[in-house]
Every structure is written in C-alpha cells, then in structure tokens.
Design goal:
Blueprint: E1 6-9, H1 10-17, H2 22-29, E2 35-39, H3 43-54, H4 59-70, E3 75-76, H5 80-88, E4 97-98, H6 100-107
Parallel strand pairs: 1-2, 3-4
Length: 116
C-alpha cells in the first residue's frame, strides 16, 4: 500500500479556530498532530482560489482546493454538493477529489478503483 501524508494549511487552522465549543474545537485541533507540514497561503494560491470561486465554489472551499492543488494533493471532502460542482468543472481542476470514505476504500483495496 502507498504511504499517504495528511497536509495542513493556514486555511484549515483558521476554520478550526472558528469552531464553537472549546471541547469540540480541541478535539479537532488534536487531529493536526497527524499533519506533515503546513501549506502557507500565497498570491498564486489566492489567484487560483478566485478562479475556483468564479465557477461557483464557496470562498473557503476554493482556498482549500487551491491549497491542495498547489502541492498536488488529493482533495478529500464529505460535501457531496461540492464534489458535484468540482466534477462538473473537472477540466479546470488538476487534482483528484474524493469522499474520504470512498478514497480510503480505494487505497486500501476495499472498494472500486473508480471512486469519486
């Protein structure tokens, strides 16, 4: 099986900081210990995020997507509506997008090779 790294970003940290309820926020923050580096937002990422925002992707989702794309990462999301928008514009997006459960099933050999 391939090795995978969880990558963090300034956007992730900002969104975690906004979580209501200290216990919930700390539980989510504890997941950051598994990240292998942090992507810093730069002008190229901001420009790409604006492009994604222009095709109907929410500003924060656009930042997450642009950040993942900047390092060639797989973008994982449970937001089915977001996946649909991205798939409708797949010609404009250079990375793969998956539901995390479907992605895990695929990479562990417990699911279809065509999971999206």
């Amino acid at each position: 099986m391939e090795e995978w790294e969880l990558v963090g970003s300034e956007v992730v940290e900002y969104e975690i900081a906004k979580i209501q309820g200290e216990e919930r926020r700390r539980a989510v923050e504890s997941l950051l210990q598994f990240t292998r580096g942090q992507i810093m937002i730069n002008e190229a990422i901001m420009d790409r995020a604006r492009t994604f925002n222009g095709i109907g992707i929410d500003a924060f989702d656009a930042l997450h997507l642009a950040t993942a794309e900047s390092v060639g990462a797989v973008f994982l999301t449970t937001d089915d509506a977001l996946v649909k928008v991205i798939m409708n514009h797949a010609d404009k997006i250079s990375i793969k997008v998956y539901n995390p459960v479907k992605w895990l099933m695929e990479v562990t050999g417990n699911g279809s090779k065509n999971a999206q």
